[in-house]
From TrEMBL:
Keywords: DNA-binding, Transcription, Transcription regulation. Residues 6-63 form the HTH lysR-type domain. Belongs to the LysR transcriptional regulatory family. This is LysR family transcriptional regulator. The keyword DNA-binding applies. Signal peptide: none annotated. It comes from Pararhizobium polonicum. Pfam families: HTH_1, LysR_substrate.
Amino acid sequence: MRLTNLDMDALRSFAIGMEAGSFAQAADRLGRSTSAVSAQLKKLEEQAGVTLVRKAGRGLTLTDSGEVLLSYARRLLDLNDEAMSAVRGVELEGWIRFGLQEDFGETVLPEVLGRFARAHPKVRIEGRIARNSELKDRIASGHLDLALAWDDGSPFAATADRIAAVPLCWLGAAGREPAWLPDGREPLPLAALEAPCLLRTIACEHLDRQGLAWRIAFVSPSLGGLWAATAAGLGIALRTPVGRPQSIRQLEPRSHGLPDLPSLGLALFHAGKEPSPLTAHLAVIIRQALWETLPAEWLTQQAIERSPAA
């Protein structure tokens, strides 16, 4: 049996077209004509020997075979891009300093470090997990080359590449109702990180605006301690859903008398205006890991356009 090699350019056009919602938008992103992208899709269907998309009203929808191929296409494109980065960057040497929020330590960091180490085996990474204020201070002072941190929209001297808008939420112990009622008789117990803490400040400001009394019931220097206190029912916490343990659940604000919350920006902060090749490639890998980890509705349009399939 003769094996068929799928065309990588056609796969990329296929993946971008389905992510964008139309092959006309895919053509714009790729700098090609719509007819050229349509021809690539036809070529891909001929190679696969199946129909991949069908018309649905004014748009297109995937067939069952198309859904299967799209899943493989994303993985093939990721591997292709990683291989090309590794080949081109194998001779790069030096070291890079990278910092990130503790929220992403388990979900993103292992994947990022593994991909970068495979692509640049001669490069040393100095990693730091720290609080938001420390990360931004170290970027501003030049002690970090790149940092994944919360972006509250305040002016900042460094270059910020907004990746996502992550929803904030109130969190409580799973399997039990919070031992607090919004009747004004007892202040709301809060579990929070040590000050200064951006999310702690946001929690207090929103409670004050709604006229709710509160008290700091538990303070932790680490996210692990905060999760433990919240799971034990010592207080309600304000965080994002990222990295939330199963022992903690999201609380619906209105049914618990709590304020509605906004989303919080997530950005890559660069120490300089012109990042080095190493810093630029690490930023690409971080964006890829976040693109694979975070829900699509959280991602900014810029992040989607710079995703692995783009």
